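Forwarding the complex inputs:
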Amino acid sequence: MNKIFKIFLSVFGASGVLIIEGGKVVDLALEISALAGEKASKRELNSLLKRASAGDREAFGKLIQRFEHRALTLAFTFSGSVADAEEIAQEAFIRLYKYLPRLKDERKFTHWFYRVIVNAAKDFLRKKRHRPVSLEALAGKEAFEAKGSLTPDKALLEREAHQMLFEALAGLTPKEKSAIILRDLQGLKTKEVAAVLRMGESTVRSHLARGRKKIKDFLVKAYKEE
Amino acid sequence: MDCKKMESSLALYAEGDLGEAEAERVKSHLRNCPECRSLLKEYEKSETTLKDLHQSALSQINPPEIAPKVLARISQMRPGHLVIDWRYWLAAGIAAILILSVIYFTRGFERENLAPSQESLIATRPAPSISEEEQIASLKVSETPEPTLLPSAPEPRTIKMVFYTPKYRIIWLFKESPKVSLN
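Prediction (whole assembly, two chains):
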């Protein structure tokens, strides 16, 4: 029987199409379970947030585990150093713990989380600014020492790539850097970047346009010289 | 559209950050401008390179576990740690200033309720230990204020407020003809 039924479903806040024709039903069943999984994950996060803001440290520990990788990669992108990223991420989570009771809307947690990391990174780098920093430190030398399995040539190539990334970002203003990192490297939408950085979308776009021009000019020059 | 002005639009167009109308304008310009098409390619390449460099850098690091360290630092924080936003401090400061202002300006405030007739009564309190300059001469009970109203106007009830500081002496006239005079 080749019957096709089109049913528009509102399951777990999403719409779908059910077509009964052999394996098509299986696809939809998987889609429902994926949506259900996403919803369960959100429910779990809301529960953790509620418990953590009430002072439940076990819940806050689980929250850290859930977000620490994201925090560390974002902090690393700002600072260029694993050691600095660890300090920044720790400070950010301490601030989160202090201010979590003030979070009224759990849906805004992700924006808030990013904002805390960005501000912690800016504060850390501002304090560090006047300390002399070698290019090696900028390139995250210890990041490569942590992974000792690279062959010397590959390590050199990787290190140059690493160095080039952070040199490209170093030429940006703090606002341009934040916009570029959140939008281009972290994958947030422009609207989300605007919410995180507390600026208008057109302002974010201006920073993105200027930042991208600087990066483009740097990379074009760097690759021409090679 | 001018090619010079196009560059910032191209930087946004390369990553889909332009609005629909603006994107259409850029697309239309690109059809007829090989330089801008070349520039767009540079932007697209640069973005791809940046992302590749970023992924490469991330793949080389061993992110440490920070949960135990953070929880250890939190356990050292004093319990019931209260974080007060600077706005609360500002509001508390303004409220304190307002309360102090009200207390200051009403200090020595005296309210008098005059008799319904033409008499004006002034109830004076014994002044606190203040200098002579600061003492306000009180009207005699029997004295009647000079009529300041038109003959046809009804007699006002007068409430006189006397402050001990000479700067503020305000007389309110209530009821039928509100009139304010400032001595």
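DSSP finds ten helices and two strands in chain A.
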